[in-house]
Amino acid sequence: MKNTIQKAVYAALLFLPMTAHASAAGGGAVEKSFIDVLKEGGWCMYPIGLFSVATVWLIIDIWFRTNDKNLCPEEDVTVAKQAFLAGDYVGAYQAMKTATSPFANVVRSALSSVGYGKDATEEALVTEVEKANSTLQTRINYLSVIGVCTPMVGLLGTVSGMRGAFASLGSAGIGDPAALSGHIGEVLIATAAGLFIAIPAFMGFYFLRNKLQSGIHHLEEEAERLFRNAPYDYLKDADVGQEETYAALPNWIESPEGAA
Fold it and tell me: What is the rounded CA–CA span in Å between residue 170 and residue 148?
């Protein structure tokens, strides 16, 4: 997690220009540092900077989470197949319980309902797949939120810069072009920065959404393959999970008839 955040911070810096040039009084060019450019953009550059880090972090994080090797790790699939081939459903459940992949969660959930028949098993499997899909889709939706909000923040910076520009023009007229150009520069930087972050955020949103759907289909196929032609008749009423049961018989059944 720490390495991912560090990579996101470094990559986010590439979203904004590292240097800028402005005309100097003597006609030369003055090289400005990245911090100077940020300061010229005004207050809105701070939230935009946070949005840029969040965008890169989400893209990297979701990219790895939606890979087939993370959704369906080969070692988990192999262990499950070997246990199913040996008819060791209890062992398969325990192995999937110790694993942390979405595939393991789907198989474990289906095995916990295998004693109730085919329909209950398939329903549990699909429910867990939808849960995994919903969790990852929520992360992807954050990219859409960033893509919408970042230009709005840039627009606020634009309005703030324009207000300062007109205030400078009203108080000093055109006698202080440096102050006026500074406010106009703030307007341009704020607007450009907001759009510069929104574009990759939206691109990442649509690309990762399609990638997720492909990964979820692969996950469901791998899980369903295990339960194809499962011997549900022999597994009827089997407690594969062997978890503690809390739903006991109603207490009035054990009490003598007519007792309070």
Answer: 34
Exposed, middle or buried by CB within 10 Å (0-12, 13-18, 19+), for 187? buried
Domain ranges within the chain, ordered by starting residue = 2-11+28-72+132-232
Burial class (CB in 10 A: 0-12, 13-18, 19+), 93: buried
44/8 Cα distance (integer angstroms): 20
Residues in the chain: 260
Separation CA 220–CA 106 (nearest Å): 8
pLDDT tens per residue, range 161-193: 777 666 666 665 555 566 566 666 667 778 888
Q: What is the pLDDT of residues 203-257, one digit of tens each?
A: 999 999 999 999 999 999 999 999 998 999 998 888 887 777 777 778 777 655 5
* DSSP state for residue 30 in the 8-state scheme: E
